[in-house]
Amino acid sequence: MLDGIECRHVLRVSVPLGQELPAHVTAAGKALLALRDPADVRATLPAALPATAAGSITEWPLLEVELEEVRARGWAADLEESAHDLHGVGVAIRNRIGEPLAAISVYAPAVRLREQDMPAVATALQETATTIARAE
User: Is there a smaller number of Cβ atoms within 10 Å at the N or the C end of the chain?
Assistant: First the structure.
């Protein structure tokens, strides 16, 4: 994680700057992985996908299906894959010719960022990603 803003709620997500997690367990990571060639993803990630929480995807066929879904809808979800009771939504930021540059994500406790709320959050993130890309 390069930067973050915490909310004012008592129950919130606090991730230390610089913390690294496997790309396949985070919303931002999956948003970026989905834009890469599947063979390149296979060559880049370890053969044994590590888990960071009980919900982590650790099987290649499941990850491949997940990345296909991300490609189709344009955003990625983290449903307790990176940490217990944590949900996230991520989108890729693309340059003017559509290449991925980075990703942005929103995370919250699972009780506040419910799965049914994720499409609305994704729409707001996509708008933000477009604004960021225009500033490139």
Answer: C
